[in-house]
Amino acid sequence: MDEGGSRIRRRVSVRKRDRPSLACRFAVPAAAELTPGDEEEEEEEKMVAGNRRRKKTVEVQPVENNDSEEDMFGDYDSFAENSFLAQVDDLEQQYMQVPEHRKHASDLATEDLYSENIKHNKLSITTVGSFTELKTDEHIKNQCRHEDVSVEPEPDILYDVPSSQVLYFENLKSSSNDLGDQSTKERDWNASSHKTVNEELPQNSIEHHRQTDDSSSKVRSSSEENRRKSLKEHLKSAMTGNAKAHTPIFSRTKQLKETLLSEEINVAKKTIESSSNDLGPFYSLPSKVRDLYVQFKGIEKLYEWQHTCLTLNSVQERKNLIYSLPTSGGKTLVAEILMLQELLCRRRDVLMILPYVAIVQEKISGLSSFGIELGFFVEEYAGSKGKFPPIKRREKKSLYIATIEKGHSLVNSLIETGRIGSLGLVVVDELHMIGEGSRGAILEMTLAKILYTSKTTQIIGMSATLNNVEDLQEFLQAEYYTSQFRPVELKEYLKINDAIYEVDSKAENSMTFSRLLDCQYSDTLKKMDPDHLVALVTEVIPNYSCLVFCPTKKNCENVAEMICKFLSKEYLKHREKEKHEVIKNLKNISSGNLCPVLKRTIPFGVAYHHSGLTSDERKLLEEAYSTGVLCLFTCTSTLAAGVNLPARRVILRAPYVAKEFLKRNQYKQMIGRAGRAGIDSIGESILILQEKDKQQVLELISRPLENCYSHLVQEFTKGIQTLFLSLIGLKNSTPIHDKNSAN
Ligand SMILES: Nc1ncnc2c1ncn2[C@@H]1O[C@H](COP(=O)(O)OP(=O)(O)OP(=O)(O)O)[C@@H](O)[C@H]1O
């Protein structure tokens, strides 16, 4: 689901473009452009680019390597906002390099962030001031000064804070530094503005109370008498300070808002615990949550199905739930509301399992702003990120967002440390993945372990492509909800030769003739583009966006290049400067080593997108595509599931993923990228097929989705064997002789 925050708002949201219509949509290149000589020159250039060298053929050839596997399960990185994640990474690096002797700070991190915040941003100055006033022993004074100085914005305090939120506190720190010599009161406001909903004490009293704690602990080590004196003096000073303190108006407003939110949460907690049907302002959540959805995502009102689903008795009773709706149906919002209920009202941690690193990062970026506003941690468990067992948080609850593998390790660590009960809710997006190879086996193991070890953990699974739901229901002991709602209509087409057919389940053959493709191709173009891709994409770009799914990475690059060869020069003028900027940035991040294919295609607004790109390259290209600077991606299945990019038209270059014929759920996920709610008002897909594949394609579009079957046994070493070994390791098994003796 599309998410964003004030600072980190996703930029794939509504695109309103005002692009010139291009009279001549595609052009046959001048003969000279296609001479063999040119091809040789290009080949030379490609040779320079080393492994990025590509041949010119655009024919779909089944290949030896299944790069789709690589795409689907590779280390595909981020679709999240570029600059935000880059900063997060930098910060994480910075904090991870904290020397060993300063790691005491990790203990501090288990304390509430608010107190850390206060210590960092204010105490270093205010405490020194207090002690100077107190005229205590000079040595103690110096020591305090020294210690306070060392407490002044040191990075190690944030050692264990999730990186997503470290960034937030880093910004806070810099804003505090910017304040320079401004009054303590202003800094107080800074801290108070980030107070959590649980911290209802008046600002000044918290402030001085904590000063007292902090200073007294230092004095204790020197002299008990001094300590008493100091405490007494300090309290006196604190009270005088309180009395004198002039609270700025904006601080009071902020306080009022915080208090209101806190009260609303208290009411929400009571509502959720009671058997009442009154769900309060926003599904048992404070009205602030509703405001945040309007502010961050532009969601003003829930769809009817979302409301129905959230008010189901089974959901109110926290029964396990599976729900299934078409792609772009808005499934994520329901899961998010249930997660927020768990974090804020029931005060328990939540685990969200997503299929790819990219989607985890996208979600982290989107939900961090909610965490900051509502007072919970958002923790990333993907790639190299994640701590096992997770840090125990005293007050705030954690939302762990994890890939399938990291989710499994997280659950293991919670079982091992006897903390699995702290997990109130587990949400699995793309639940159909449970039937996919060794990754499916890991997901199944994770869920089985939760079911077995924690009776209080609710499990929610969602997907657009489920078939044998009863089996899954039985496994998860879950209720089921489904609807056919899709906010943006998606029209499915097939293209055979130059005829376009609409997929129509009521028609004989499941398709009806729609139109002939308007393509006046020269002989050269016919030869280079027998599938009329150029004609298909130029019906859409540059005014709208288009995704072309290709069976292989190599084919992606070839298709991108081929299309650009036949686009008219007019395309070069569209958002020319921004495209040059993209090229410049790409050069910068790849040390001047820009891929020659991208160098040629980006000026036309076209790029390829597959797992061969570095994560930084991908982020940059996605950003440019999301904002309409690029209007066409040729891509592999990497972009098939769960990604919310704009696409008026999705074209499937062939009914293959590598050399495997498309599965129905892969097909559904791919075409489902077209016409995303909030981005486009209509969507269409065109599957290009050859006569030889016609029969198989007709079956593909009319047969039911594939069933999910357990892979625990099929994937023996990564499945049942791993499960047994880990159950022994987690002491969740009983040796046979113990069992016999018990009998
Ligand atoms: N009530 C709503 N009003 C307006 N927009 C909504 C609403 N609910 C969700 N959306 C938007 O619809 C888009 C698609 O939603 P979401 O990503 O949740 O779909 P999905 O069902 O998870 O799709 P997929 O299965 O393809 O991942 C998002 O941009 C989201 O912000």
Any overview of this molecule?
With 743 residues, the chain is α/β, with parallel strands linked by helices. The protein contains 30 helices and 17 strands. Helix 5 (113-134) packs antiparallel against helix 8 (184-192), helix 7 (163-179) packs antiparallel against helix 8 and helix 9 runs antiparallel to helix 10. The relative contact order is 0.12. Mean pLDDT is 72; it is low at 1-161, 167-232 and 245-250. The chain binds adenosine-5'-triphosphate.
Features:
binds adenosine-5'-triphosphate; alpha/beta; hydrolase activity; nucleotide-binding; hydrolase; DNA repair; 743 residues; disordered N terminus; HTH_61
> Which radius of gyration do the C-alpha atoms yield?
29 Å
Q: Note the main sheet.
A: 8 strands, mixed
Query: What number is the mean pLDDT?
Result: 72
Spell out which ligands are present: adenosine-5'-triphosphate
- Spans of at least 5 consecutive residues whose pLDDT stays below 50 are 1-161, 167-232, 245-250
- Across the major sheet, the strand order is 10-9-8-17-14-11-13-12
* Large-scale geometry: globular
Strand tally? 17
The SS-based structural class is alpha/beta
Please report which band the strand proportion falls in: under 5%, 5-15%, 15-25%, 25-35%, 35-45% or over 45%.
5-15%
Compute the separation of the termini in Å.
Answer: 52 Å
Number of helices: 30
Proportion of helical residues = 40-55%
In short:
Residues 190-205 have a biased composition (Polar residues). The chain is α/β, with parallel strands linked by helices and 743 residues long. The protein has 30 helices and 17 strands.
